[in-house]
Structures are given as C-alpha cells and as structure tokens.
Write a structure and sequence with these properties.
mainly alpha; 155 residues
Length: 155
Amino acid sequence: ATALKEIWGGEPPMPVIVDLLFWLHLMALAMGIGGGIAMSQVGPRLIAATPDQRAPWWPLATIYSRIAGAGLILLLITGPLLLWLRYGGIEGLNGWFELKMALVAVIVLTIGLSMRGMARLRRGDEGGGKLMKVAGALTTLTAAAVALAAVFSFH
C-alpha cells in the first residue's frame, strides 16, 4: 500500500486497484491453466512409468502442481475481492454466475482428488495413478466449463 501511495502521490484511485486485482486474477488463471497443461503431459508419463523410473518425473510433477495450486489459491482470493469491489457483491448477477460458482466448487474437489492421487502414487500406491488420471480429465473439462460460465456471467 505504501508503494502505491508513493507512485500516485496519495491514495491510488479505486479503479486502478480493481484493475490490478483483475490483472492478478488473470495471472492466476494463467498459472492454473499452465500448470494444468504441464501436468496433462507429465502425469500420464508418471503413471505409466514403473516405480523405479518415476524419479525424473517427480520434480516436474511437484513444481507444475504447485504452480497450478498457487494459481487456484490466488483465483479463490481475487475472485471474491473483485466481486465485492467491482460489483458490490453477488446481487444482480445471473444464473451463469451461480453455475460458475458450482463449477468452481467441483474444480476445487477434482484438483484435491488429483493431488491426493499424486500423493498416493508417490507412496507407492498404484491406485493413486488411476485417481490422478480420472481427476485430471474431470479438472480439464470443469475448467473449460468454468471459463464458459464466466464469459456469460459478466456481460
């Protein structure tokens, strides 16, 4: 906040803060999508590898899933802030927004299941790979549906 005050020579105007939050929201979306795309390539290779061949894949899976997870956390923080600052809350938003929120809940669940599957696979439980595969596919489909619902929510 102090740095912003110095840049603007006082309190920054609220529209600028909202625009910066929207930029951060878009960056978080890019992190989530980028990490997800990367995991769509690393995950199947990790699952298909024998336990002794997985070592090179774990660091990649770890960093990509952390990037995607950080993106999700930022989206969950910036989204409500944007709603509050830009729209004054959820009143007046349409049914697409309600669908988007339901899908956000689903994607949080599918990402959690995928992470659980990855942890199980890391411990040597091959069933974790199956969970990763199913949850990863559901996450991809749900992400596309969230994006579509978001487009129709805010116009």
